[in-house]
Amino acid sequence: MKKYIKDFEIKENISLTAQYSVLKLSPIDGQMPKTLPGQFVQVYVGNSRNTYLRRPISINYIDYDKNELWLLIRDAGEGTNSMIKSPNGSILNLIVPLGNGFSINNGHSLLIGGGVGVAPLLYLGKVLKERGNEVSFLLGARSKCDLLLLDMFSQYGNLFLSTEDGSMGEKGLVTQNSVMQTDFDFIQCCGPKPMMMAVANIAKERNIECEVSLENMMACGIGACLCCVEDTASSGNVCVCKEGPVFNINELKW
Amino acid sequence: MVNLNVKIGNIELKNPVMTASGTFGYGEEYADFIDLSQLGGFIVKGTTLHHREGNPYPRMVETPSGMLNAVGLQNHGVDYFINTIYPRIKDIDSQIIVNVSGSNVSDYVEVCEKLAPLEKINAVEINISCPNVKQGGMAFGTTCSGAESVVKAIRKCYNKTMIVKLSPNVTDIAEIAKAVEASGADSVSLTNTFLGMAINTETRKPYLSTITGGLSGACIRPIAVRMVWQVANAVSIPVIGLGGIMNGRDAIEFMLAGATAIQVGTANFIDPAITIKIIEYIQDYMVRHGIEDIKEIIGGMQL
Ligand SMILES: Cc1cc2nc3c(=O)[nH]c(=O)nc-3n(C[C@H](O)[C@H](O)[C@H](O)COP(=O)(O)OP(=O)(O)OC[C@H]3O[C@@H](n4cnc5c(N)ncnc54)[C@H](O)[C@@H]3O)c2cc1C
Ligand SMILES: Cc1cc2nc3c(=O)[nH]c(=O)nc-3n(C[C@H](O)[C@H](O)[C@H](O)COP(=O)(O)O)c2cc1C
Ligand code: FES
Fold first, then answer.
1. Which residues of chain A have pLDDT under 50?
2. Is B18 helix (H, G, I), strand (E, B) or coil?
3. What's the mean pLDDT in B260-278?
4. CATH H-level superfamily of B6-296
């Protein structure tokens, strides 16, 4: 897929919680690049000595009618903080789209997300639903206020929720949620690595196809520097930014 | 029209702007962003005799105005390059230069012998300065005798242009450059990355799997400019300058210090189209200063 370096205008910066914002972006030239769910962008934040490189961020949602690309940002440090603080009307430079997306399977997918890892699942759920598939979301967070964009998710599938403190949905980790025991054809997952590994184990035990989206540290994001590698079963070290970030768990040495 | 042509050994570059090994893949990764044929040249990934898996993850960490890397020369080996990559890139109308690494002298020689017959590869860049591999690599580049042994052996079997990439991790880089020149190199390029290290103070763990790694980016530029100036004053073969070039101004700075050509590395990660902007800047600079031939800029610092 052709990649672009493109300026986007922040149409709307919506603060969801103290830590999270959604940025709704539109391309300045009006031309929205073709993207797939699970792909990401590299955001230019080179405005201080501590944010020298671009920051990889998943595509959260695409609204082709409004010509909008959404990013869901968690304040993790200077770069993401500067994105969250960017006012409406300011410009973000992106390299887009990067990596390979999730598989678009026919069947019932359970999309499991934790923390900011829920980001790519919204776009994925939208596309799966539009193709006529049954979609269920299992979203986990520390507490109720960290469960984000629930009204959006509920448009595209059934919602199952877990919070560590029990303030919403079932109490505990996503892997303990009762929906994990029910029947579905695929699992597609993005979140903290320990969560993805636990989900992968359950998928293996139950013999369910499972994809996870990795967040290895990246420099270029375009397969040029070989910094972001993951050791794989069939091909050794491969670039997460180019061969991933989505991998079938059978490919990984987890 | 201003004249941007420069010559390195026997190869002509249509302009002095090249890309640095390990930061530009095989060129193809950038084809969506720039017209590769506009580049003076591009240096492909470090190539070794045999396949190398490189170092374990994590291999990079960002540092103030730069980054540390510990890739460790991951590549599929020279035969893979010749059979699979070369046919895909050989028709790009630019100088394609292969960066060669090895852990002993005979490895370097064998890789160069295999590359010599390739019609479109008219130069190699010998990496005697990689800080990220245990054996060889930088070890050859940190002593005059080590550098001489590699360069002399390659010179016996390789007749095309040989550029030798110097390590900055030495006390006197001009001494090494002189030894390399005397051993038959056609050009030197400098600098490679600076040996560095960073620790996560919360976990008390090093950020890199190899503990130490190579520092690149804007933070190294003033040291690299100084080294280019020292080397250009010490040798008569052309010097290729690199280290933290982020824009056209930085490129001119290296040329004023004595570089005949320059390479852009880490800056490609931040702006994959930066090389083209640098070429345009150089043209504008020349017009602005009434310079017709780029050679007037080389070593043109005024005291
Ligand atoms: C493919 C991919 C998709 C991502 N999608 C999103 C997203 O949709 N929304 C979002 O908020 N974040 C996402 N991230 C994580 C995001 O890139 C990092 O949080 C960000 O780079 C941190 O930069 P900073 O300057 O804010 O913080 P820094 O001060 O640079 O780092 C703060 C903390 O974040 C960690 N960090 C830095 N870079 C990364 C990284 N590449 N991956 C994971 N942790 C990192 C650091 O180790 C540190 O602990 C994604 C990462 C990848 C690789
Ligand atoms: C990720 C990465 C990989 C590199 N790999 C190589 C390599 O294989 N061979 C080599 O000679 N130099 C390698 N280098 C060094 C660069 O070519 C260059 O010398 C250095 O980064 C300084 O230039 P810069 O500051 O413009 O990046 C690498 C640098 C980086 C950042
Ligand atoms: S981040 Fe450079 S290869 Fe993946």
1. none
2. strand
3. 98
4. Aldolase class I (3.20.20.70)
The residues in A 171-200 lying below 8 A from B, measured between CB atoms, are none
* pLDDT exceeds 60 at position B135: no
Domain ranges of chain B: 6-296
CB contact under 8 A, B66 and A224: no
What ligand 1 atom has the least distance to the C-alpha of A78?
25
**Pairwise CA distance, residues B176 & B170, whole Å:** 9
* Pairwise CA distance, residues A116 & A195, whole Å: 12
Q: Place B129 in a pLDDT band, splitting at 50, 70 and 90.
A: confident
Amino acid occupying residue B155: R
CATH 3.40.50.80 matches A108-213 = yes
Of the candidate ranges A109-118, B82-91, B140-149, B160-169, the one whose mean pLDDT is the lowest: B140-149
Contact A221, A241 (CB under 8 A): yes
What backbone phi and psi angles, to 5 degrees, belong to B148?
Answer: -60, -45
Q: In Å, how far is A216's CA from the nearest CA of chain B?
A: 8
CATH for the A4-98 domain, from 3.40.50.300, 1.10.8.50, 2.40.10.220, 2.40.30.10? 2.40.30.10
Residue A126 structure tokens: 């939208």
At B134 the pLDDT is 61
CA of B64 to the centre of ligand 3 (A): 19
Look up the ipTM and state it: 0.95
Burial A73-99 (b: 16+ CB within 10 A, else e): bbbeeebbbbbbebeeeeebbbbbbbb
Report how far residue B182's alpha carbon sits from residue A110's, in angstroms, rounded to the nearest whole number: 67
Q: What is the CA radius of gyration of chain A?
A: 17
Partners of residue B74 in chain A, C-beta under 8 Å: 226, 229, 237
Calculate the alpha carbon distances from B212 to A56, B59, B70, B193, B215 in Å: 24, 10, 8, 12, 9
Better-predicted residue by pLDDT, B139 or B181: B181
Catalytic residue numbers of B read: 130
Closest residue in chain B to residue A46, using alpha carbons only: B270
Question: What are the residue ranges spanned by the domains of chain A?
Answer: 4-98, 108-213
- The pairs formed by A179-186 with CB atoms below 8 angstroms and a separation of 24 or more are A179/A110, A179/A136, A179/A138, A180/A138, A183/A108, A184/A107, A184/A108, A184/A109, A184/A110, A184/A136, A184/A208, A185/A105, A185/A107, A185/A108, A185/A109, A185/A209, A186/A103, A186/A105, A186/A107, A186/A108, A186/A109, A186/A110, A186/A210, A186/A211
User: Which pLDDT band, with edges at 50, 70 and 90, does B133 fall under?
Assistant: low
- pLDDT tens for B169-215 read 999 999 999 999 999 999 999 999 999 999 999 999 999 999 999 99
